[in-house]
Write a structure and sequence with these properties.
The protein has two domains: 84 residues; 69 residues, inner membrane protein cigr (Nuclear Transport Factor 2, Chain: A, Roll). The chain is built from three helices and four strands. The protein has a four-stranded antiparallel sheet with strand order 1-2-3-4, with no helix packed on it. Helix 2 runs antiparallel to helix 3. The radius of gyration is 25 Å and the shape is elongated. This is RcnB family protein.
Amino acid sequence: MKKHIIALLAAATVLTPVAVQAKTTPQELRRDVREIREEKQDLRQAKRYGTRAEIRDARSEVREARQEYREDKQDYRRQVNRANYRAARFNAPFRYNSWNTGVRMSSQYYGSRYIVNNHASQRLPAPGYNQRYIRHYNDLLLVNIRSGHVVRVYRGFYW
């Protein structure tokens, strides 16, 4: 009886799937793009020289490669977003305002805790002299910190 229980427990641990969260990297995304190109090239060749079944298989492989790329890209965006904003608290102690270009805002809205320093990783142009990117809830504002005027507004930048 003991042997059967031990055998069942061993089988259960071997057969139980382990949930592993794989981290997506930019290198993996580039690899996926290369795979899509190769699959498209195979599809072109199948269209020239292949049978209908080969063409159908090549199309399904291209479709699967594209789907995998979309999923990996979405995972990567989620990881980057979590990593950049995990520790910071961007919910301001004041209510949400919808800012427009040219409006003057008080200095409490662009304090040091709301400044976004990683503009290059967000694919934003470098701010000019005396300008800073400020996060206000899900909006991103380019503010002239000397005068307090809003230079540019990116609404819904952080979804």
